[in-house]
Design brief:
Elements lengths: L21 H21 L5 E2 L11 E5 L3 E5 L1 H4 L15 E10 L26 E2 L5 H6 L12 E4 L7 H7 L7 E6 L20 E10 L1
Parallel strand pairs: 1-2
Antiparallel strand pairs: 2-3, 3-7, 4-5, 4-6, 4-8, 7-8
C-alpha cells in the first residue's frame, strides 16, 4: 500500500538557531518547571515521574525524554498486559497518527465532551491550533470554518524524516500501536524562538495529544 505523508505543521518544522544566553536559559528552565508542576499537581490524573513508580503500583506516570519533553501514556494503555506484544515505534518506523496540537498555557486541556458537542458546551472545549481528528470537525464547523477547508486525513509519519519536530520524535519513540499519548514540550523542542505561521508565538511551549493508530 502506498504511504502518503500529509503536509502538516509537524513536517514543516524548520531548523532554529538558539542564542546561548542567560535569558534563554531562564525561559527554558521556567517552562520545564511549569510542566513538572502541572503534571504533578494539576493534570488529571495527577502524575508522578516514572522512576518513582513503586512495584505493583498502577499510578499515572510521566517520562522525561531528553531534558525537555514530558510524555504521559494513558494508564489503560501503559498497564495493558498485552502491550509488549504490540508493534513498537522505533526511529525507523512509519507511524499513522491522529493528533491534536495545542499552545500550552498551564491549564487543563479539555477535549470534546463524552456526550458530543453542542452550543451549550462548545466554550468548554480547548481549541487545538491544528488537528486531524475527525471528531473535531463539528467543533470547527461551529466555529465558522468553511466545510472542507480542514484536512482530517490520517497523518503518516516517516520517523526518518528530518522535518519532524524534535519533541514529537522523542515522544513517539518507545510508544506502541494503540497508545493514547500526551506530549508536553518546551519551545526549543517545538517551533523555536521565531513566530511560526503567524499564529504560534515565538518561544511557545506546546502540547501534542495523539493516538498511535498504526506502526509499520
Amino acid at each position: 500500500m502506498k504511504r502518503s505523508v500529509i503536509s502538516s505543521l509537524f513536517l514543516f518544522a524548520g531548523v532554529f538557531l538558539f542564542v546561548g544566553c542567560a535569558e534563554k536559559e531562564d525561559l527554558f528552565g521556567k517552562q520545564k518547571s511549569t510542566f513538572v508542576s502541572f503534571l504533578e499537581k494539576t493534570h488529571q490524573p495527577r502524575l508522578i515521574p516514572v522512576e518513582d513508580l513503586e512495584p505493583g503500583s498502577r499510578e499515572g506516570v510521566y517520562a522525561t525524554l531528553g531534558d525537555a519533553v514530558y510524555r504521559y501514556i494513558d494508564v489503560e494503555n501503559y498497564y495493558d498486559p498485552d502491550r509488549e506484544n504490540k508493534p513498537l515505534v522505533t526511529e525507523d518506523s512509519w507511524v499513522t497518527l491522529t493528533y491534536r496540537a495545542y499552545l500550552f498555557n498551564n491549564t487543563l486541556i479539555r477535549g470534546l465532551p463524552d456526550g458530543g458537542l453542542n452550543e451549550n458546551n462548545f466554550a468548554s472545549v480547548t481549541p487545538p491550533f491544528y488537528t486531524n481528528d475527525p471528531a473535531f470537525e463539528p467543533y470547527f464547523r461551529m466555529a465558522g470554518l468553511t466545510p472542507g477547508a480542514w484536512d482530517f486525513a490520517p497523518l503518516s509519519v516517516d520517523m526518518r524524516n528530518a522535518g519532524i519536530i524534535k519533541g514529537l520524535r522523542l515522544a513517539l519513540v518507545g510508544c506502541r500501536e494503540g497508545d493514547r499519548v500526551e506530549a508536553y514540550m518546551t519551545y526549543n523542542m517545538a517551533y523555536g524562538d521565531k513566530t511560526y505561521l503567524y499564529f504560534i508565538p515565538k518561544e511557545s511551549p506546546v502540547a501534542v495529544f495523539f493516538s498511535v493508530d498504526k506502526v509499520e
